[in-house]
Amino acid sequence: MDAEKEEADIRPALHLLFQVYHMRPSQFGRTTISFIMHYSIEKEISQITLFPNMTEGVVFPMLYSPICALLTSEVKGMSLTMKYGFILLGKPSAIVELAQEAEAAGWDGVFLPDDWMSAWITLTAVAMRTQHISLGTMLTPLPEQFPWYVAAQTATLDQLSGGRVILTAGLGVLELDKFGMQDNQVRAQRLDEGLEILADWWSGAAMRAFTYTGRHYHLHEMRADVDWRTHAPLQKPRIPIWVVGGSKQSQIRRAARWDGAVIGGSPAELRARKAAIEALRPASMPLEVITEGETPPGDPTRAAAIVRPYAEAGATWWLESMWDLPGVTRDYDMRTRVRSGPPRIL
Q1: Crossing angle, helix 249-257 and helix 184-201, to 10 degrees?
Q2: Are 154 and 165 in contact (CB under 8 A)?
C-alpha cells in the first residue's frame, strides 16, 4: 500500500481510538505515532487478523480498524499504551511548578501523597496550570476520610480539569494513624464501603434520596425537600479507581472489582498478580496495571532497560518515584529527573 495513503487511512482511526480509550492525541509523543506508522507500513498491517480479546486485555468492539489490532496487541511482548507518571514531593508551590515541567517533558500523569486531604487542593492548582496531564494521588487512605467528602472533591476537580482525575485508594499506614484505627480488617471494611459510596455518589443521584447502609457508614434520606444532586465527575462512567493489588486474596478480589491495580515486586510477581486479578474479571474490562520505581536521568537506554521487563510483564503505567529512603543517595534532584522525561521503552 502507498505510504501516503496508509498514513491517511490510519490517522482518523488513530484519533478515534484515542477518544474511545479516553486518551488525547497530545498525550502521545511523535515517537509513538512515528513507530505506529512505520510498523503499519512495514508489516502490512491491513492483513493483521483482529481478535475480540487482545493480550493486554483491551477490547474495542466498535472499532474494526487495522490500528485497533496494533494498539491493543503486544509487539515484542510490550504494550504500546504504556504510560508514565511521576510521584511529586515537596511544598505545594514547588509541586505546581514541577507538574508544569512534567507536562512539558512528556509525562502522562502526576501523583501526590494524600496528606490529610490536602492533595486535592494542590492538584486543583496543578489543573489550572496544565492542559492534559492526568492528576492523581498515591495514595488516598480512604478509611481515614469521609468518602462523601472525597467524592465531592474529586468530582469537582474532574469537572475543572476536563476529566483528568485518577483516585488511588488504600488502607493507609498504621504507623501514621492518629485515630486509633489499628485494625487492618476494619480499615479494609471501611475501604470497601467507602469505594461503594464513591461510585454511587459520582452517579449524580438525587441528594435527598441518596442512602447507604453498611457496617461502618450509614447515609439516610434528607428530611428537607431540596433539589440537589450528588457530585458527578466529567469522566463516564466515573473517575478511574486504582487500588493496591497485593498478594492477599482480599486484595486480589478488590483489584478485580475496580479499574487499576498497583502492584509492587519483581516483573514475575507482577505478571502472576495480574493474571490472578484478571481471572476474576470479565475479559471486556481492561485493567490498568501500575508499578513504580526509579530510573536515572540523562540515560534513556539504561532507563528503558529498567522499565522494559515490567512492560513485558503487563504493566500499563510506570510511576517514577524518588522517596526519601534511608541509605538512598542521589547526585540529582527531582526537577532534574522530571525534566529528563519518561523512561520510554519505544
Answers
A1: 10
A2: yes
- CA torsion, points 341, 342, 343, 345, in degrees to nearest 10? -120
How does strand 165-170 pair with strand 241-244? Answer: parallel
Q: Kindly report the pTM of this predicted structure.
A: 0.79
pLDDT digits (tens, 9 = 90+) for 317-334: 999 999 999 999 999 999
Q: From start to end of 121-161, where are the E strands?
A: 134-137, 140-141
- Report the Cα–Cα distance between both ends of the chain, in Å, rounded: 25
Q: Are 209 and 221 in contact (CB under 8 A)?
A: yes
Share of the chain above pLDDT 90, in %: 73
- Kindly state the cell numbers that stand for 25: 492525541
Q: What are the cell numbers at 58?
A: 483491551
DSSP code per residue over 285-309: S--EEEEEE---TT-HHHHHHHHHH
Half-sphere exposure of 58 (CA within 13 A, CB side): 24
Q: What length does the chain have?
A: 346
Q: Rounded to the nearest 5 degrees, what angle is found at the Cα of 85, between the Cα atoms of 130 and 31?
A: 85
Q: Could you please report the per-residue DSSP string of 241-284?
A: EEEE--SSHHHHHHHHHSSEEE--S-HHHHHHHHHHHHTTS-TT
Question: Bridge partners of 111?
Answer: 87, 136
